[in-house]
Design brief:
The structure is a single chain. This protein has 135 residues and is an alpha/beta fold. The protein contains five helices and four strands; from the N terminus they run βαβαβααβα. It has helices at 14-29, 40-49, 74-77, 80-105, 123-134; strands at residues 5-9, 33-39, 62-67, 112-115. A four-stranded parallel sheet has the order 3-2-1-4. Helix 4 (80-105) runs parallel beside helix 5. The protein is globular and about 45 Å long.
């Protein structure tokens, strides 16, 4: 039996990560496996606000994967006009590698992808990889 496995890719900002994380929780409640990709910077922020002994009810169903954003300092990270071109340049190769590794090594293959609209530059990468794998 194929278990659905969703890949979530939000823009790296709290107003984008939080709603997609909430959606991922709803899907995980319906036995969908989730791989949630966000930047290392956002991951540190998220981990910093969690209680010390935090335990998730979604362990094993939601996997958090971090990628670098390409910024060299917080000035670039906190200025979207500087960060966005870095994301456009850096993110596709990391997403491609993640998808290919999942296809090759994971028992439960990614069956669908939810990409934040502002990350639309990833559509060609995702579409090409899934099209090639379906042939």
């Amino acid at each position: 039996m194929v278990i659905p496995h969703a890949l979530f890719i939000p823009l790296c900002g709290q107003g984008h990560v939080a709603p997609l994380m909430e959606l991922s929780h709803h899907l995980a409640d319906q036995d969908v496996l989730i791989t949630f990709v966000y930047t290392e910077f956002i991951h540190k922020y998220v981990m910093a606000v969690l209680p010390e002994n935090f335990c998730s009810n979604y362990s094993g169903r939601i996997r958090l994967v971090t990628i670098p954003d390409g910024a060299v300092n917080d000035e670039e990270r906190l200025n979207l006009s500087k960060l966005f071109p870095l994301l456009q340049y850096n993110t596709p190769s990391f997403i491609e590698e993640l998808i290919l590794n999942t296809i090759e090594k994971e028992e439960h293959k990614i069956t669908f992808v939810i990409v934040d609209g502002t990350m639309g530059f990833l559509d060609p990468v995702v579409t090409l990889l899934f099209y090639d794998c379906m042939e």
